[in-house]
Design goal:
By secondary structure, the chain is α+β, with helices and mostly antiparallel strands. The chain has six helices and ten strands, in the order ααααβββαββββαβββ. 38% of the residues lie in helices and 19% in strands.
Length: 304
């Protein structure tokens, strides 16, 4: 009996342990899974869709635009675009116009091959009438005009440093460095002349820009004290043209040749107070053989 009881107790213990294990498994299966098992793969397109839905849900809805407002908005947009296009066309037109003046210059009446190759930009220039043509020069009757003038710093009239500095000073006045901040148009020619000597002092060279005629005597005053605005009265001059780059030696030779030619002129002679003037019509980048330069001396009629 004792042996039978022990076997029965052993069987009951085994069954009890088996029942406990099954109960534990059932409890574990009914529990919520760990948090890590909740993470699932979500495609990028679905994420974008979810973000869009969230934004749409939170952002306020805009009031639909009326037909009148739509038309006004369209008109304003078209007007803005038209204004931009108009300004752009004007800028391009002005740029092309100014460029054309230098790329396609005017040809003046020629006396020989050298003068036939000369050209000047299509800019406002001095007004004059040719009263007679002589051998190697011509006599002109100049109308009055205004100039902006400055004294050159160099010892000569055509050294690079002195000429460049004087040109820049006058250009600043022309393009806005004046009391009215007026930007004036460039003209031709640039005139360089030598003043009369005072006592024992050598005469100074001066450079001048011819002013646009539309201003007359109402030119703005320069802010730079080294710039002077003056009126040049009408006068009669003898002029000889030549090409190339201007040098002091070239000016001396041309002036001497012109003075000697005028000694033989039956009608005109050089005025006692006359000093040589050199007119240059072209920008620096012009080819030497197409440049036009002129030397002028004021003359008067001989007494009969």
């Amino acid at each position: 009996m004792a042996r039978i009881f022990r076997q029965s107790s052993w069987k009951q213990a085994i069954e009890l342990e088996s029942n406990r294990t099954r109960t534990k498994d059932m409890l574990l299966s009914n529990c919520a899974p760990p948090v890590l098992t909740m993470i699932r793969y979500t495609s990028p397109s679905k994420i974008k869709s979810m973000a869009t839905d969230r934004t749409t849900a939170t952002s306020p809805q805009r009031r639909p635009m009326s037909a009148f407002e739509a038309r006004v908005s369209l008109v304003l947009a078209l007007a803005s675009q038209a204004s931009y296009q108009s300004q752009r066309r004007k800028f391009l037109f002005d740029l092309a116009n100014e460029t054309t003046k230098y790329l396609f210059p005017k040809r003046s009446g020629s006396r020989d091959l050298e003068e036939a190759l000369m050209a000047v930009p299509d800019l406002e220039t001095l007004k004059y009438k040719v009263s007679s043509r002589k051998e190697g020069y011509e006599i002109r009757e100049l109308e009055p005009y205004y100039v902006a003038e400055t004294t050159m710093s160099g010892e000569t009239g055509f050294d690079f440093y002195g000429a460049s500095r004087s040109f820049n000073v006058l250009a600043e006045y022309l393009f806005g460095k004046n009391t009215m901040k007026e930007k004036m148009e460039m003209t031709t020619p640039v005139i360089t002349r030598k003043t009369e000597p005072v006592m024992t002092k050598e005469g100074k060279w001066r450079m001048s820009f011819v002013m646009p005629s539309k201003y007359g005597a109402n030119l703005p005053l320069p802010k730079d004290p080294t710039v002077r605005v003056e009126e040049v009265p009408g006068r009669v001059v003898a002029v000889v043209a030549f090409s190339g780059f201007v040098t002091d030696e070239e000016v001396k030779q041309r002036e001497l040749k012109l003075r000697n030619a005028l000694k033989r002129d039956p009608e005109f002679r050089v005025k006692d107070s006359a000093s040589v003037e050199v007119a240059q019509y072209n920008p620096p980048f012009t080819l030497p053989f197409t440049r036009r330069n002129e030397i002028a001396l004021e003359v008067e009629r001989k007494e009969q």
